[in-house]
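Feature request disguised as a bug report, sorry. It would help if multi-protein outputs had a clear separator. Right now it looks like this:
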Amino acid sequence: MENTRVVLSPQNRLATFGTTVLNYHLVTEDMDIANESRVREGTIHAERPEIITPMNMARLLLEGFGDEAQGYADYLSRQSKHFSFLKYGFCIRKNEIQVYEVHEPFESVVDKIKERVVEKNDPMSAVLVGVDDAWEVCLLKFMFDTVAASAGGHITDFKNRGLL
């Protein structure tokens, strides 16, 4: 995760009331072969965030629990105006991933991919740099960082609509 770097971030945050499709371009360097990079291009589908209130959370947690848990669930329900959580769902469709190798210096490959993505002017595209062996971890880090960057706006949107 420490070696994951976002070279070009999506211009927009994740949608609050719909599904967002993020287009990623992940460039990794082959550590065994000089001047060989691997580029993976694909999509991440971020489902709309859901509000998990203490009342809903209590319902989720109660299956198979006893009276004490029910008492705590009742307490949570009475405190619902004090806290809520957002639940995010993601789907990485690996069948849409294109993988190809480029035989050029690593930074040159990164620069060319970035230029190509900027030219497309897609506000939901990102260019990432990471480690080849752990490329999926790079995507997970990117997804969590994208959620963190979007969550504040989602909470505001939900509050503005009276949902929180």
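(second protein starts here, but nothing in the output says so)
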Amino acid sequence: MIKNVYSFLIISGILACNAQNNSKPIMEEKTTFKYQLSDEEWKQKLSPEQYYVLRQQGTERPHTGKFNLHKEKGVYVCAGCGAELFTSDMKFDSHCGWPSFDKEIEGGKILKRLDKSYGMIRTEIICANCGGHLGHLFDDGPTETGMRYCVNSLSLDFKKKDN
């Protein structure tokens, strides 16, 4: 009986996550990006840690990123290509250990892709300009958008706003 209940809960959770993620626009697997470099060029341009996150869909350890508790005013850009992704006004402290934003800069700067890695079903967020892995999108944000763009600091650079 317990095994059946446990199986039911797991299947229900998977179906709920799948339904949630299917409602979001998911990019085609064969997307061509404007900013393209060879694998060797990416390795020269990025630090080994940035390469791991941006090009190999890695994740930095929670509470270690330089932008997790960052409070300056400005624009967060893709560390791979410099495309503007988020403003400081979109950032909030989600206490999850990674920089979190409740929306993205308009204009299709971020693409979404279904991610089934590690036995989970999530929505991966990708730079639309270079295809760099940024993090994941969740619908558990505390603001009026209800969204939480959970982003690796290693995938970002920051342009301070001039006062």
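Even a blank line would do. Unrelated, but nice: The longest strand covers residues 110-115.
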